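WARN  no MSA supplied for this record, continuing single-sequence
INFO  ligand: zinc ion
INFO  echoing inputs
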Amino acid sequence: MKAYLSKSLVISLLALCIVGCSSVPVYMISWQAESYFVTPDTEGKKWESLGNGLYSYQHWIDRSLIIDTPEGIVVIESFNEEMAGELKQILDEKFPGKPVKLLVYSHQHLDHTRGGHVLKPLEVIAHKNTRWHFNHYSDDEVLKPTRYIDGSTTMIFGQHRVEFIDFEHGHAEHLYGFYIAEEKLLYGPDLAFCEALFPFGFPDFNHYGHVEALDQAANLDFDRFISSHFNSGDKSCVTGTRDFFNDTREAVLNGFEEHGLPSDNGTAKWFRSIIGDTKGALDDKYGDWHGYDEMSLPFILRQASGAYLGF
Ligand SMILES: [Zn+2]
Ligand SMILES: [Zn+2]
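INFO  complex generated
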């Protein structure tokens, strides 16, 4: 079976080479993306009660947090127009006549902030450091914050005290996490995944800042981690992600020590050593994580460039 598979793979690759060998990496990336993003867990849409007026809504790989209060609904993350439209429909059915009183953005990335206008929130909040980015987005695509806030802060939403945890210098310009102590629950958009790799090397992050954020989160007392992407889990999502980041960076730095920094001598060999040795150091511990086969290489490359450049 294996021989047959590898023979058919070679034939496919040869067939592609007739079209043009330069297409092969493009096809490979497209197949990797397909198997990473399309899984049984990311199919369909899921409205889930987390108890005491807390809910989550999952559409494809994305998950919003929803808080029901007497004065209206709080939504954290709108993601995109399609998802926000479905969520609005659910909210109108479950909470007739209740407005979305507040939309909160954890950070400015467009994959989290499109489609807010569909929810018709009375107020939109984001961190002040993200203002510059929001000012550059089109009004059609992104509903602009009506209020910018700063630092860690606590807001009362109905029966819940929600702590906005200030994660600086990690992912994006600025990142908020949302901690509800009495529920022992942390909603950590783009902070950690549960035994899954971030897509394509984890765009827009600083390794040291992000590990600091993960340490900060790990010090909180919680046993439910609600993830903005893929599955949710418990605190091990945070500590596991932190270990994966640290183990990858450590292996890359060990490679730098053994093979030096890249120079005009033996560049290809240098890359093969750094990437191959790092992958070898991670395979056993993380090989069964979702997306390892598809996304470990981009992550190692991103960690290598970060280690070389100092971020
Ligand atoms: Zn992001
Ligand atoms: Zn995200």
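The chain is about 40% helix and 20% strand.
INFO  checksum written, moving to next record
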